[in-house]
Amino acid sequence: MLILENVTKTFNRGTVNEKVALDSLNLTINDGEFVTVIGGNGSGKSTTLNAIAGVFPIDSGRIILDGEDITSLSEHKRAKYLGRVFQDPMTGTAGNMNIEENLALADRRGKKRKLLWAIRQKDREKYKEKLKELGLGLEDRTEAKVGLLSGGQRQALTLIMASLQKPKLILLDEHTAALDPKTAQIVLTISNKIIRENNLTALMVTHNMRDAIDYGDRLLMFHEGKIILDISGEEKKKLTVEALLKAFERVSGTEFTSDRDLLN
After folding, report:
1. Pairwise CA distance, residues 173 & 170, whole Å
2. 34-39 and 218-223 strand pairing
3. How far apart are CA 45 and CA 22, in angstroms?
4. For the chain, what are the domain ranges?
5. What phi, psi does 18 have (nearest 5°)?
6. Cβ–Cβ under 8 Å, residues 127 and 103
7. Pick from 199, 220, 195, 201: nearest CA to 209
8. CB of 39 within 8 A of CB of 222?
9. Measured between alpha carbons, how far is 176 from 204 in angstroms, rounded to an integer?
10. Over the chain, what is the mean pLDDT?
11. Fold (topology level) of 2-263
12. Model confidence at 116, in pLDDT bands (50, 70, 90)?
């Protein structure tokens, strides 16, 4: 489904602030795989997601999605293949539009515009069914402005919008980091449900080691722009936070010093 071949990215090249963000990164993700990504600050987690989405050009290497080389495609051309949910609940939705209108925009992404642009009744019914599955009561508030929703409700709505057209790949970039713990767990449960029921291929960056272990089929740990741990199957099911920390120290030769990750 997704192949990264020797992907390299350096920011501020030739200056005192030069930073190698991705160092000849190689990664293959299979169709239908749900992969969680953990690592310290500046390890390359979010940079990888942004490189896949085309937020910036990579310095070298190739990005192949479902057999197509998308390395040179612009961000907006890649958007039809990808679903994205960001850390900020305000990103990814239009706050001055209502729930129904936001869903309609997501549903029509990448499609040719027609003279008839109104929301049809069958679309309304489909949106209400999708919202009902969240268990948040949003199916009864389809005309409410999205800007009035809580952070958790907004992230849940963004998840539906991101998965509505069953993208080739869904990217979750610390999408629960701005939420309180209780709401974060609700959103994670919804995320897992949507990914599993739609058989989506997903890449989820998280700052929470426990969530990285509990969710997904496979766990990747980044360090200095490279993948230093790749754990799946029975090994992942038996994994503990303590074992993950020891494995990181063994492979990297350093202690894991991200307070944000450790405190979670």
Report:
1. 10
2. parallel
3. 9
4. 2-263
5. -60, 135
6. yes
7. 220
8. yes
9. 10
10. 89
11. Rossmann fold (3.40.50)
12. low
Distance of CA 203 to the CA centre of its chain: 5
pLDDT digits (tens, 9 = 90+) for 231-250: 999 999 999 988 888 888 88
Model pTM? 0.88
Q: How far is CA 257 from the centre of its chain?
A: 24
CA dihedral 9, 15, 17, 23 (to 10 degrees): 20
C-beta separation of 222 from 37 below 8 A: yes
Minimal CA–CA distance to 28: which of 53, 64, 55? 64
CA dist., res. 73 & res. 217, Å (int): 29
Taking only the tens place, the pLDDT of each residue in 144-182 is 999 999 999 999 999 999 998 889 999 999 999 888 888
The residue among 150, 185, 206 whose CA lies nearest residue 34 is: 206
Strands (E), the chain: 2-11, 19-29, 34-39, 60-65, 68-69, 82-85, 169-173, 202-205, 218-223, 226-232
